Amino acid sequence: MKKKKTAQVPFRLNILFFVVFLLFSALILRLGVVQIVYGEDYRKEVERTEDEIVSTPVPRGKIYDRFHRVIVDNIPENAITYTRSKTTTPEDTLKVARKLAKYIDKPVDKVTERDMKDYWILTRKEKAEKKVSKKERRELEKQGLSQKEIDKKIYELTLKRITPKDLREVTKEELEIIAIKHEMDSGYALTPQIVKNNGVTNKEYAVVSEHLEELPGVSATTDWKRHYVYENTFRSVLGSVTENDEGLPRERLDYFLARDYSRNDRVGKSYLEAQFEGVLHGKKAKIKNVVDKSGNVTSVEQIYSGERGKDLVLTIDIELQQQVEKIIEEEIMATKRKGRSPLLDRAFVVMMDPKTGEVLSLAGKLLTKDENGKTRFVDFAIGNLTSAYAMGSAVKGATVLTGFQTGVLHPNTYIHDEPLYIKGTPAKKSWQTMGTINELTALQRSSNVYMFKTAIAIGGGVYRPHQSLRINPEAFTTIRKYFAQFGLGVKTGIDLPNELGGFQGKETGAGKLLDLVIGQYDMYTPLQMAQYVSTIANGGYRMKPQIVKEIRKPTDSANELGPVVQRFEPVVLNRIDMKTEYIQRVQEGFRRVMQMPKGTAYAYFANAPYKPAGKTGTAEAFYDGPIQSRRNDPTYNLTLVGYAPYDNPEVSFAVVVPWATQGESDGINNRIGRRILDTYFELKAKRAKGNVSNNETDGNMAATTEANE
Asked: What confidence score (pLDDT) does residue 117 get?
């Protein structure tokens, strides 16, 4: 038995050794396959890297005036940026933020309660864990949720249970760290985020540059800031650009993201900056980040340097614009000092080339009070197309032309100016009884009755003293149709957003029809008034008002413009459907207003060497401005439209002064009109003397340099 057992032990050992031999053989074979057959593939996998292409913003295009003077520019500024990798953890970011806080000052005014709570959780983990009990955690696990969902629920409960007392633990120094970390965490991985670009001192810039080795992801670089060279001049029309901390407007987020914008890109958010965003934005620089398998950036390579946005050349003469704005402010204040215009707080001026529609000046000023109760003017140029008022007798040129077109008037038609006594209404009359007059005198002296009787004829009515007046309500449609040919009551088509079409009265009584033809019923914008008088000035062509003249390619040189990409040619919206003789009669009436005795503007323009023509207006109105207690108080809107020279117009204009009190303020419209025309022709003479052409192709580079300085 002993011999038999002794023989079995070596046999079992042999089997064990044989099995071990087979296992080692298989292992050696497998290692051979891995090293010899697939070794190169595995080595490449270990050394594998990925290319991550990211885009970085470039400066926006510049905006120039018609003489190529820079109105909107970009100025460089120091900036501190941070780029996080795909594997960067919140703890990593916090570590860098703590170090960076030692080298820069970061305002904390934008730190939110949520930022503070996130920081509190990250830096006080033991306390944060106690906010959710073990029992609550077990309950969440029993619900069959994934670990990710459980963590999210715990995080939300923790946030909710952090008390104000907990947050008071956060020190002032920690607040600065939170503010820095907030900027670092915004945006996407591998995309540089601006930590600070406003007020980075040279010392901060130098210190950060010296310590970049201990600040992974941080860079000291150069950013750009939008610079409005003439400050508040024309500011409401130029618009504005979002800041870094604003990013893309929420209401247009999908639109921009679909066009390769990043969430923190700066974009135009109003008027010209927004309207021409696609032109001004430019082509982003493309950077390739080479990332290893762990997500760490191993190298950075620039693929495309990007291109600054294209430049806009406007039709605006910025020097004229400045002068016009100054005139408006001076005249408003001069009128306010007289003490009888408490509601007067704004005035508007549009000046344009009546032959091309190019807007030379679009000025508006609004008198407001700041938080300390001090009065100041703010730019309200955009009000020329976003606000509407009753314009008074300035529209009478359109009334006469409508009379011609409907056949109720003919050139040299005489009508008796007398008070009209219509049953149930106060007497309707002119500012003075004028006797029997034709259309030229009616315009020259601003007869209401001439216009009233024209309207009655259009409406098929018959005036009988002290009796009711009946008219065909279709007369409203007829008159408004002809008024629209001049741009009154319809959008002008200007290349700016949010244009108002004006307001139409809803009632159709006979009295309202009479009010309509003297400009005291429907309301129009100042820009519509400018288009209307331009149509008369140029012989009957309604031109589209234009602010943008050209789009040009960007250049690296500060003293020259790039080639033209697109030029905006004059656009004729419609030709007035009437005889040239009719328009010439109204032109003559407008000339008499300013150049013949008894003309309503003769006292202001009789000696003007440039021989203007135009029409004054005074509309009875009701105040509907910002002073709630004075709403619906009776007041007056004072207007003036015109052009010069009368026989070869090169500039047309509209002046609108709402809510002035007649008497002390009467004439502010004419004073503004005279001064802006004087300024226009003085600048023209000065430029001619200095050999500076008004031709848009002549770039005033000296002026550009001066503006930049």
From this structure: 93
